[in-house]
Amino acid sequence: MDQLTTSLAPSRPSPKSPVAGTSQQAAGSTSNRLGNELMTLMMSSSPGISAFPKHDGNLFEWVGTIEGPAETVYAGLSYRISIAFPPNYPYVAPTIKFESLCYHPNVDPANGAICLDILQDKWSAVYSVQTILLSLQSLLGEPNIASPLNADAAGLWNTPEEYKEQLMQHYRPLKDDSP
Amino acid sequence: MASDAVRAQVSAKWQESFARLNRDQPGITGLLNFSRAFAISLSYLHPRDINDPTVVRSANVPHVRAAMSTVNESRMLPYVLDGYLDEVRKRFNLVQKDVEVFMAEYAESSDPDVIRRLVFRLLAWYEAWTPLPDLGPVILSGYSLTFQTLLFSNLPPTFATGFKALCASTLPSAIPPSASTPTPSDYKMWAAFESLGLIDRFESILASVGYEHIEAYVLEMCKGKWSEPMLEGLRNWMSGKVVPWMLLAYARGAKSTEEARNMLQGVGSRFDFHMNKTLCDLRTNEIFDIIIDFPDSMGALVDLRDCLQRVDQRAELVAALRKANQKRLLHPGAETKLILSQYVATIKCLRIVDPPGVLLFKVADPIRRYLRERPDTIRNIVANLVGDDDTGDSLVDENEPIQPLQQADAEDYSDPNWEPEPIDAGPDFRANKPSDILSTLVSIYDSKDLFVRELQVLLAQRLLSITDDNVERVEKERRNIEILKIRFGEVALQVCEVMLRDMTDSKRIDGHVQSQEESVVHPTIISKHFWPALESTNLIMPGQFQKLQEDYATQFTHFKPDKRLRWLPNLGTISLRLELEDRTVEADVPPLEAAFIELFSDKNIWTIDDLTKAVGAVDRAAALNALSTWVDLGVLKEDEEGVFRLLEVAEEKSALTKGGKARGTEANPGAGGDGVLPPVTQQQQQAEQMRIYWKFIEGMLTNLGNLPLDRIQTMLKFAPGYDQTVEQLGAFMEAARREGLVVVREGMWRLNR
User: Domain check: are B456 and B384 in the same one?
Assistant: First the structure.
């Protein structure tokens, strides 16, 4: 049976070319999707979150800004993040890191990596940059103490005064000229 | 001094020649016989003048044949032939004379029949001069070649024209389609052509006769007739009429149908191609009108599709349609509504012609770009969607199922029906999956938000125009919105939902307020945040109106303590009854009119400046407009420029009508010129566009820090449809700086925070 189907299948000129074509195609549609997301993000007025491509002509690397949500210890603080989209976005989650030093239970103090379920195993193609940014913003005020990347911060979370002190020690205000 | 050797050689030659001519006959009898035979041959092979009846070819053929064979045996035949051909050449002037006579006649009459007679005459000459057929093919072909060479070199250039006309006359005439079959005389004529070598010589003419005939027929039959597919009929015509003719011209001497078919194959497919090409050219030229006629022009489209498969003229079709669109559609004279409906028709038509959509993509691009520049495109599409169209013909087919807007998805390669893009698809071709028309229209803009916003404005306008007489229209709007929800999604239309709810809530609240304290005011209470910005003026209602509003507001605040009622006094209508000395006047008027007339209850004469001051700042044109309403009704009179007097007693009829006529054109009570929402103007559209760009600029300055102007310009490429120059951007940024949104230092812009 196997033999039969192989002989019936149209011969492929080379196994490589269709694959190359696919990824190129996908890159095109990913660009479209990212373009649309940028448009949506720009047009929506969600306070405190923002992102924009880093270089012209490249939609795959963005820089974002998140302001701490009001009425949390992060209120009034702004953090810069980097977003790198894989070529097969949105089927695979983008890679997001804090560029500014962020004192937070779920942010790795060494490299800015973030522990957030929707960026890992809970990722779904229906999420967009906007939803990610909103999730990150709310993560600032509501950390997940159960799986900390920064154990110090997780330990201090329940004592807000000390936490705030540590937070402010680590906080570096954004400079506008830093790209 | 001849040496022996030379002498011996000459003698040997002599002996050899003698032996050949004498043919081993005793003595010189052979030689004598030969000389007799040679003489007979020569005299027989003499090109006679067929006009001269005295010279008849000697009937003694066996005798001549014997003589010929004698000559042949002596291997002298070529000399006879050479001599004969020389003779032919010399005497060809006889033929020449005939040709001249016929051609002169033809030049006068232009009758192809002259040519026909000429051909038969030439054939007579040819046959008269033909040497005996049993002399073998070599002699015969030598003769034909000489004759034809002479003939062709002597035929005047006009012969070609005549020949063409003659060939054309043998074709079955196109109109009326007569059932003419080739007559025997036709067969004879074609045979004559063949013998004279005319067919080979004039093959290209023959072909052009066929082509022109086909062309003329196709144009005659198909021009402007789009309702039925024509191709089938044309094919039948080809096989019924043209093929018999082709048999004559191209398949002479075919012994079987099989053979004939083989001979016709090449030329037949050329002719068929030509037919397709002609039809394709015709339809390409007509394409714009075909699209206008859609769906009555279905047949033409099917033809075009079939022709395009045979003739590769897709690029020509695209070019023709783009040119026609440019010339006839995309200019300021065409209404946006027309452009839209033609665009939709184009979509439907080209989907028939080219299902993958490559042609459509190429043609649609300029239309879409043009539509994007038109300020009222969105308004038109949305108006059409909600059935606000006067003409009633909807862009969107009612039979098409209502479905959500489709986004261009990534290609699904696991689809078993997946097909690669057609070869002439450009690099930016987006596989236009057969999505519905509305999605295509909405995709003219990169964001559907614009539509949703326009929809809100339109809905607001329609809802506010609802009066007590036609409350059921709220339900109609609700139904519309429900349908649109399916297309645009629940979320997008939430605002519209709120607007509709405001309408019903208003009724409810009004009912409650009226039950507390009866009032003649019945406001529509709208939620400021959800309704599009409505034009508000500084109109202050005077006198009793003011009091009515205040009373109502008080009641409202009792009912909803957390809400504040802010009046939009310039909207709505007021039913008034004016009690004057001699009469009562009833009128439904916009608020400004009511406000003015209320003021006249205090004193009888007002200047327009005092009036406008008394109701807050109203612009003069609007005030004049409002006052003229009353002048038309015969309630006010303009005594001198800008001074109005209340007519407690009506003036005589004549003066009234005169005044009414003079103002009639500009004032129209009830229309309430300034009461409704102002339509979105082009400037507003532009401002809207700049608002989008501003969002992008804000976004990049937030995230990327300080940027120089040219960097902002390149980064704005991310904004869809961005088409401003650096200078325009500079002016825009400057304006933003004046408003305090940004600051600039050393050429670097940053947000002012």
Answer: no
Q: Which chain A residues are within 8 Å of B706, Cβ to Cβ?
A: 176-177
Are the beta carbons of B361 and B421 closer than 8 angstroms? no
Collapse the DSSP code of B742 into the 3-class scheme (helix H, G, I; strand E, B; otherwise coil) and give the result. strand
Residues B154 and B35 in one domain: yes
Q: What is the pLDDT along chain A (179 residues), one digit of tens a residue?
A: 444 433 444 444 444 433 444 444 556 778 888 888 888 888 877 788 899 998 887 888 999 999 988 888 888 889 999 999 998 888 888 999 998 888 899 998 888 888 888 888 888 888 888 889 989 998 888 888 888 888 888 888 888 888 888 888 888 887 654 44
3-state secondary structure of B356: coil
Domain containing residue B392: 313-410+428-446
- Show the tokens assigned to B83: 């001599």
| Helix, coil or strand: residue B34 | helix
The residue among A128, A39, A68, A105 whose CA lies nearest residue B695 is A39
Q: Supply the pLDDT for residue B187.
A: 72
For B:683-712, CB contacts with A below 8 A are 692, 695-696, 698-700, 702-706, 711
Of B450, B468, B469, whose CA–CA distance to B458 is shortest? B450
Question: Quick check: A161 contacting B, CB < 8 Å?
Answer: no
- C-beta separation of B350 from B363 below 8 A: yes
CATH number of the structural domain spanning residue B601: 3.30.230.130
Number of H helices, E strands in chain A: 5, 4
Residues B324 and B305 placed together within one structural domain of the fold: no
In angstroms, the separation between the Cα of residue A26 and the nearest Cα of chain B is: 6
Residue at B177 is within a domain: no
B632 and B662 fall within a common domain: no
Question: Domain end: B630, B651, B672, which one?
Answer: B651
**Mutation for testing the B interface, residue in A22, A31, A37, A42 having most B CBs under 10 Å:** A42
CB-based contact, A103 to chain B, within 8 Å: no
What does pTM read for this prediction?
0.55
Flag whether residue B678 sits within 8 Å of chain A, measured between CB atoms. Answer: no
Q: A115 catalytic, yes or no?
A: yes
* B726: contact with A, CB 8 A cutoff: no
Q: How many domains does chain B have?
A: 6
- Model pLDDT for residues B126-135, shown as the tens digit of each residue: 877 777 666 6
Out of A32, A52, A176, the one facing B700 most closely (by C-beta) is: A52
Interval B249-270 mean pLDDT:
75
What are the residues whose beta carbons fall under 8 Å from the beta carbon of B80, sequence distance 6 or more?
A: B38, B41, B42, B45, B68, B71
Asked if B364 and B437 sit in the same domain, the reply is yes
